[in-house]
């Protein structure tokens, strides 16, 4: 292969990598019908205590950011995280009521994300995971439930979003990035989910990474751009934001931004 051809191939590969790491296309909500089933007569709770113990040990609050101490995960706690995920994968979530299922899927998503970072630490961003031309690990197989292999995108966009149709879900699932809504310090449960969703929405919308107002310009998290279909038109989005804002805003001269740096406690 000539030097000119090699140079052309190199330029092509660099261009593909640049495209894959700068252009983030958010998946649409597309229902996986199998996961709609539930048993509303079952009032038994799912035990998330192991996940709660890990949150207690490895989360820290710094200003408006809740950060994760990935660096200091002990071998025992790595085993505990694996144990929690094994326990969750052995359950049949369809045997539980919908409220219990919601907490199950959110906690599972967040625990799987933390495991991805811990298993691949150190790294600067979750977007560095996945295949050569992938933007992050969201389409990688990460867990098997009821004999069905799932990705993180399956959990968020084929189960959570289409079944519950609640835009506050975007404040609950965490992508291990500084621009993401905070990983909540409490495991979700059937009884606290609505409270945690409202709390997470309020935290994010009143933080600079969610909504930043400067003079006559407003910079919003790219979440509101990527998932515009969940938040509605500009008027509906403004109403949603002001529902949680301590200081109401008027959307004008809107720009979007997102920080993919790792949400790591240092």
Automatic annotation (TrEMBL):
<feature type="signal peptide">
    <location>
        <begin position="1"/>
        <end position="25"/>
    </location>
</feature>
<dbReference type="InterPro" id="IPR006869">
    <property type="entry name" value="DUF547"/>
</dbReference>
<dbReference type="Pfam" id="PF04784">
    <property type="entry name" value="DUF547"/>
</dbReference>
<feature type="domain" description="DUF547">
    <location>
        <begin position="96"/>
        <end position="205"/>
    </location>
</feature>
<protein>
    <recommendedName>
        <fullName>DUF547 domain-containing protein</fullName>
    </recommendedName>
</protein>
<keyword id="KW-0732">Signal</keyword>
């Amino acid at each position: 292969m000539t030097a000119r051809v090699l140079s052309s191939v190199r330029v092509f590969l660099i261009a593909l990598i640049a495209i894959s790491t700068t252009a983030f296309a958010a998946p649409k909500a597309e229902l996986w019908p199998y996961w709609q089933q539930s048993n509303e007569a079952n009032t038994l709770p799912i035990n998330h205590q192991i996940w709660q113990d890990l949150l207690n040990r490895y989360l820290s609050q710094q200003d408006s950011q809740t950060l994760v101490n990935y660096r200091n995960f002990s071998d025992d706690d790595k085993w505990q995280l694996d144990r929690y995920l094994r326990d969750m994968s052995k359950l049949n979530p369809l045997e539980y009521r919908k409220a219990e299922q919601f907490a199950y899927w959110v906690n599972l998503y967040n625990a799987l994300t933390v495991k991805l970072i811990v298993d691949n630490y150190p790294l600067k961003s979750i977007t560095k995971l996945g295949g050569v031309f992938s933007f992050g690990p969201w389409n990688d197989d990460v867990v098997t439930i009821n004999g069905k292999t799932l990705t993180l995108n399956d959990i968020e966009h084929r189960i959570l979003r289409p079944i519950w149709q609640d835009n506050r879900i975007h404040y609950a699932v965490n992508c291990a990035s500084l621009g993401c809504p905070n990983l909540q310090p409490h495991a979700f449960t059937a009884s606290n989910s609505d409270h945690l969703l409202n709390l997470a929405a309020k935290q994010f919308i009143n933080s600079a990474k969610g909504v930043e107002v400067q003079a006559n310009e407003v910079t919003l998290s790219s979440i509101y751009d990527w998932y515009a279909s969940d938040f509605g038109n500009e008027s509906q989005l403004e109403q949603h934001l002001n529902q949680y804002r301590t200081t109401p805003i008027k959307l004008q001269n809107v720009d979007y931004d997102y920080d993919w740096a790792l949400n790591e406690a240092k």
